[in-house]
Amino acid sequence: ILNVEQSPQSLHVQEGDSTNFTCSFPSSNFYALHWYRWETAKSPEALFVMTLNGDEKKKGRISATLNTKEGYSYLYIKGSQPEDSATYLCLHGSSNTGKLIFGQGTTLQVKP
Amino acid sequence: SQTIHQWPATLVQPVGSPLSLECTVEGTSNPNLYWYRQAAGRGLQLLFYSVGIGQISSEVPQNLSASRPQDRQFILSSKKLLLSDSGFYLCAWSVRRRSNYGYTFGSGTRLTVV
Q1: pLDDT at position A58 over 60
Q2: In whole angstroms, what is the distance from residue B100 CA to residue A49 CA?
Q3: Does A103 touch chain B (CB under 8 A)?
Q4: How far is A106 from chain B (nearest CA, A)?
Q5: Among A97, A102, A107, B96, whose Cα sits 20 to 30 Å from the Cα of B55?
Q6: A29: pLDDT strictly greater than 90
Q7: Is the minimum CB–CB distance between A51 and chain B shorter than 8 Å?
Q8: Residues of chain B with pLDDT under 70
Q9: Nearest by CB to B88, which of A34, A41, A87?
Q10: How far A63 CA lies from chain B's nearest CA (Å)?
């Protein structure tokens, strides 16, 4: 993996469903992995920052895991609600460049 | 604590008019500064970034320019706006070479070119 890639690009679920999506990133020179929640025409909201292999973070119904050796992170939403509808962005930080790269995002739509 | 201010919040400008959006950061020094845009139906696109005073890198060719006259001030400008410049503009900062801090975003500017 040379770039930061997110899958799927979009996701439609029913209220109450649990869902998860993936961020893949270069496993070499890893420094940090961030997740943001972004609603259109608003400022992205920081959810998690993870730096260590095996990190797990949780905020309410949303949690995230990190595997730096294989270069991926999962974001989980338990019992999705309509207010969870947003684009979820992952952001990868490199240790050798200090550069921060966004994935293209996963857009989640939760239907009542 | 660090704060980022971006203004104005909304702007309606006629085609061909100039533009100036300003962003300032407080509570930190030597930040990396960024301008992003979300055009209608599209994702977050990096327009410019700056690692220091007078140092500007452009990610995409366009009708816009950026300047950094002071360490914590970042300005997005245009001499003549186009309809395609409409969108939601976000300023952001990050700690230089410290990826675990991520970005902190301003509140955004909704620009409508008519």
Answers
A1: yes
A2: 7
A3: no
A4: 10
A5: A102
A6: no
A7: yes
A8: 61, 97-99
A9: A41
A10: 18
